[in-house]
């Protein structure tokens, strides 16, 4: 997932910028610097009210400390750890109450959520409902329905070596966890992992993306209003706040974003041996066979590219591979479907989200204007920076060494690469880092099997795009540079749980053979016993005395 924040991870406690925000709190004047935009830092619960401020813009050059630094973050984590250690978050009743509060929050504040998404990304109302509200609501309802089952210890078989005994796997919460969210689906991708963390019984800090500032502010206010403030906190802010949080010791960090920042998060976590889940991204290919229904295929590709946040999705179709023979027909059908959905005047359509900000707009334009790419546009290419809009754009046979084929596009540009034989696409895909998703459109069962067996990816969909993430019984996560770990459904619960192995034994059946001194006779008995255990022979092979000894 292409997530870029300008000046990312400079020194967390200092900044040197020509623009700064100056405000007055109850303890006096402070200055907070940020290069591109004003950010309001807000906290819930026990963080004192003097951390909230009203800010005005001034120009100056000075060395300053941000309002939320490592010391404040340490206080926050310590208070959350006290809550967790009290056992409050571990009970079934607490978990259910918090999940019900999230469900109530989504139901009651749907209009405000849609409005925040409109401000951040100009998301159409239906798209906002389907991709953000419905996804979060479904995750919450599933957790409410299945939580009791998820929490139950899992009984497992034991070996003859431990007879008589029983064993189980107990899911226990990890402790105090940090969720760092992203801007492209700023509501659902914030709440989905939080739902898993709460269901597993953890105390949670959510750091939403400052780039989607309206949704970040809304989440901060709503979580403070609906959730348990002693255990679930939202920290707003930008680079300095994220850096301060990453300096703390967490029991789990869940990060959604790009591989570059993912490495920074993982390095910070390694200092405390903190486990991480990294939901990243990559160049997700779609391979199109010549035997497909072109109309259905094109609709599903358009849905997985331009209807889905205008291509700003980590599972969006990044590029297409098809045969030279099929390419002209596929392009014509794609164009027809695009114009059917968005109209002939693509720039006037209200059915697409806009590019998130000018930084990403210029990044996408640079991909289009590269010398070896600019003459490969076969459809679209219109752009309007003042509206942060780029029309759905199709390119044909761009060079494989061009920037657009080397980095994740994360926008409305769609290269189509042609090959002589469809099987040639496999090697092309596998030359690149493993993607978060891979798609195949084909009616050939042999091609389907080869694709599943030979293409490495976080997940796949055959004859469709993006819908794999809506199936709660499937894990969602990457592999290699597209991420590590997975979530959704019970996998979210598992991501924030430790599976504790527990063996129960009674005082019966204790054999002196187990203990030194090991005489030749004992050694023979031990070898015989272990041989039986390893071979998994029937139970009656063990001869027992009246007192139960082996």
UniProtKB/TrEMBL annotation:
A single GO molecular function term of this UniProt record: aldehyde dehydrogenase (NAD+) activity
Domain Aldehyde dehydrogenase per the UniProt entry, residue ranges: 69-502
Superkingdom to which the source organism belongs: Eukaryota
Annotated catalysed reactions: an aldehyde + NAD(+) + H2O = a carboxylate + NADH + 2 H(+)
Active site: 279, 314
The entry's keywords: NAD, Oxidoreductase
Family: Belongs to the aldehyde dehydrogenase family.
Protein name, entry field: Aldehyde dehydrogenase
Taxonomic lineage of the native organism: Eukaryota, Viridiplantae, Streptophyta, Embryophyta, Tracheophyta
């Amino acid at each position: 997932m292409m997530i870029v924040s300008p000046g990312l991870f400079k020194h967390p406690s200092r900044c040197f910028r020509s623009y700064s925000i100056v405000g007055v709190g109850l303890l006096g004047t402070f200055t907070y610097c940020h290069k591109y935009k004003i950010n309001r830092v807000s906290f819930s619960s026990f963080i004192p009210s003097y951390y909230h401020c009203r800010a005005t813009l001034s120009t100056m050059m000075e060395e300053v400390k941000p309002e939320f630094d490592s010391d404040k973050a340490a206080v926050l984590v310590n208070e959350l750890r006290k809550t967790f250690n009290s056992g409050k978050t571990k009970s079934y009743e607490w978990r259910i109450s918090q999940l019900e509060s999230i469900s109530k929050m989504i139901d009651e504040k749907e209009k405000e959520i849609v409005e925040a998404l409109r401000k951040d990304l100009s998301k159409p109302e239906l798209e906002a409902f389907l991709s953000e509200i419905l996804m979060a609501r479904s995750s919450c309802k599933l957790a409410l329905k299945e939580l009791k089952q998820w929490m139950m210890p899992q009984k497992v078989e034991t070996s003859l070596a431990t007879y008589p005994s029983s064993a189980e796997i107990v899911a226990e919460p990890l402790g105090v966890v940090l969720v760092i969210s992203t801007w492209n689906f700023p509501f659902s991708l914030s709440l989905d992992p939080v739902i898993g963390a709460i269901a597993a019984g953890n105390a949670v800090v959510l750091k939403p993306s400052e780039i989607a500032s309206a949704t970040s502010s809304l989440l901060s206010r709503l979580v403070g209003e609906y959730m348990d403030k002693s255990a679930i906190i939202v920290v707003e802010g930008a680079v300095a706040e994220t850096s301060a949080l990453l300096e703390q010791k967490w029991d789990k960090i869940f990060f959604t974003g790009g591989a570059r920042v993912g490495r920074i998060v993982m390095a910070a976590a390694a200092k405390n041996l903190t486990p991480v889940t990294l939901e990243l991204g990559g160049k997700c290919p779609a391979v199109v066979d010549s035997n497909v229904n072109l109309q259905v295929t094109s609709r599903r590709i358009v849905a997985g590219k331009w209807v889905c946040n205008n291509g700003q999705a980590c599972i969006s179709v990044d590029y297409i591979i098809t045969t030279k023979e099929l390419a002209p027909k596929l392009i014509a059908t794609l164009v027809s479907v695009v114009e059917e959905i968005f109209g002939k005047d693509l720039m006037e359509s209200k059915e697409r989200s806009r590019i998130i900000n000018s930084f990403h707009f210029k990044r996408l334009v640079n991909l289009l204007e590269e010398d070896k790419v600019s003459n490969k546009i076969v459809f679209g290419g219109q752009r309007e920076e003042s509206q942060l809009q780029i029309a759905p754009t199709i390119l044909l046979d761009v060079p494989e060494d061009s920037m657009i084929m080397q980095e994740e596009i994360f926008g409305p540009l769609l290269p189509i690469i042609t090959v002589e034989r469809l099987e040639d696409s496999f090697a092309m895909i596998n030359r690149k880092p493993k993607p978060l998703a891979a798609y195949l459109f084909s009616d050939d069962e042999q091609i389907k099997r080869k694709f599943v067996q030979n293409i490495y990816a976080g997940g796949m969909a055959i004859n469709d795009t993006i819908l794999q993430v809506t199936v709660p019984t499937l894990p969602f996560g990457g592999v290699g540079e597209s991420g590590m770990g997975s979530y959704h459904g019970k996998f979210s619960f598992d991501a924030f749980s430790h599976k504790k192995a527990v063996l129960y034994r009674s005082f019966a059946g204790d054999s002196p053979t187990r203990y030194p001194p090991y005489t030749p006779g004992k050694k023979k008995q031990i070898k015989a016993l272990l041989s039986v255990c390893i071979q998994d022979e029937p139970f009656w092979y063990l001869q027992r005395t009246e007192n139960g000894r082996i």
